[in-house]
Design goal:
Elements lengths: L1 H27 L13 H96 L3 H6 L4 H106 L5 H15 L3 H12 L17 H4 L11 H12 L12 E3 L2 E3 L12 H15 L9 H14 L7 H13 L11 H23 L1
Antiparallel strand pairs: 1-2
Helix pairs in contact: 1-4, 2-4, 5-6, 5-10, 6-10, 6-12, 9-10, 10-11, 11-12
Length: about 450
């Protein structure tokens, strides 16, 4: 048992030394967080975030280990406290029993003293009687005559003396037997007292042993609690650094223009999550993948020198299955916005030439046809009459509703990855006709990182 406790203390101490080395290394190679709002340092800062996240995982493992150690030690201490209490109760019982035995021995000694006193008195009485009798035996006739006693009286006294003598002899025998019995009882009591004293000593030795075991566990528990406190402090330092780096990176994006501040985006994502069951981190990962949270919403349709909406959207005469142009015109009229001047996504360029269709709108990059199918639900979700794809809150709710319909509300890795692939192409990640698994994988990687940042924010 002692070996187990020493091993526990050694392991905890080793962990604390390792933590100290980790802290020392960090101090000697401090990372300059202030540089993370400069674009040329973004990759280094993101690498630092990854390293810190890994370190926090290790620290969390150490904290979990200490929690387990403390739970085990706490249970053992509780058990030992129970054993100490039980042993103390037994020792008290032994003390009470030994005290009762001592009282019984004193009573026997008092009885023996009383019998000895009685025996002494009766011996003295017998001595007087015998002396009297011997005096009669030695009396001469002359003395008898001088005594003026009758002859009949002389002979009458002799049987009385004899009777008293016999009675006293019987009393002596009874007293002697009583003394033998009482001495026997006293001897038995003294023997029992010795046995109880020995048993009490054994209990005291056992109690001391248990108390020593409890002391060892108390020491191990204190070491473990100290280790956990140090780990928790170190984790707080790392989380603070993550928060500072993340804040700088968000500042970098916001300074670049057009982006949704992360605090606002997260607040809108939490709103949407409550209504759809989709994780905020996954919603934000989709938006980050699509438009870097509204920073990249397209470069077409900004002015007449670029391809405009009618050049990049399919219309009623384009031979496409959808008519985005008509829907777009209707939407812009309801929003009171000009058809040209609002950024839209451009078609993909192949060999320097646009290929396919563009026209995706806002941070969520919905095409007009898809937006129209969700427009009433989006408006209801945010409490407006007309939903606006360029409004950050509306766009985030739109994404949440869409991926919820695609199964992301299940909040499993597979369900979210499939929803991401379908968000991108309308097809499953495993569909052989399209190669869109990269999109699902990218979204899930972003989700992990964003969730780590959210966890830090929520712990503040």
């Amino acid at each position: 048992m002692k070996t187990h406790i020493r091993t526990t203390i050694f392991l905890v101490s080793t962990l604390m030394i390792g933590m100290y080395g980790l802290q020392t290394h960090t101090v000697n190679a401090q990372f300059d967080v202030s540089k993370c709002n400069r674009e040329e340092n973004e990759s280094d800062c993101r690498k630092r975030l990854e390293d810190l996240a890994k370190e926090i995982q290790v620290i969390n493992g150490g904290i979990q280990l200490q929690d387990q150690n403390q739970a085990k030690l706490g249970a053992e201490i509780t058990q030992l406290n129970g054993e100490i209490k039980k042993t103390s109760t037994e020792i008290k019982k032994k003390n009470s029993l030994i005290q009762n035995i001592k009282s019984d021995i004193v009573e026997r000694e008092q009885s023996l003293e009383q019998l000895n006193q009685k025996l002494q008195r009766e011996k003295e009485s017998l001595e007087k009687i015998l002396r009297k009798r011997y005096e009669l035996d030695d009396s001469t006739v002359f003395e008898f005559i001088l005594s003026n006693e009758q002859v009949s009286d002389f002979y009458e006294d002799a049987p009385a003396f004899s009777y008293v003598q016999d009675s006293l002899s019987d009393s002596f025998a009874i007293i002697d037997q009583l003394k033998v019995d009482i001495y026997g009882q006293k001897s038995e009591l003294e023997k029992k007292r010795e046995e109880e004293d020995a048993a009490k000593y054994g209990l005291q030795v056992e109690q001391k042993k248990i108390e020593d075991q409890k002391k060892e566990r108390d020491q191990a528990l204190a070491v473990s609690e100290q280790a956990e406190a140090s780990l928790t402090q170190l984790r707080a330092i790392r989380e603070k650094e993550i928060q500072e780096i993340t804040s700088k990176l968000f500042e970098l994006r916001d300074l670049a223009g057009g982006g949704i501040p992360f605090g606002d985006a997260y607040a809108f994502a939490k709103e949407a999550s409550k209504k759809t069951g989709v994780r905020p981190a996954f919603i934000l990962a989709i938006l980050e993948q699509e438009s870097n949270l509204g920073k990249n919403v397209g470069t077409c349709n900004r002015n007449t020198n670029e391809p405009i909406w009618s050049d990049i959207m399919p219309g009623p005469t384009s031979g496409s299955w959808r008519d985005d142009q008509t829907i777009y015109q209707s939407l812009m009229k309801k929003l009171g916005r000009p058809l040209v001047g609002t950024p839209l996504s451009c078609p993909i360029k192949v060999n320097g030439q646009y290929s396919g269709w563009g026209g995706a709108m806002g941070p969520s990059q919905f095409i007009p046809t898809t937006w129209q199918s969700y427009e009433s639900r989006i408006a209801k979700s945010v409490g407006v009459s007309v939903a606006n794809p360029w409004n950050a809150q509306h766009a985030i709710h739109a994404t949440a509703l869409y991926v919820s319909d695609l199964g992301a509300g299940a909040q499993t890795y597979t369900a979210e990855r499939e929803a991401a692939c379908k968000y991108y192409s309308g097809r499953s990640c495993s569909d052989p006709s399209v190669k869109n698994a990269f999109y699902g994988d990218g979204v899930m990687n972003r989700t992990v990182r964003i969730q780590a940042n959210i966890d830090i924010i929520e712990r503040q």
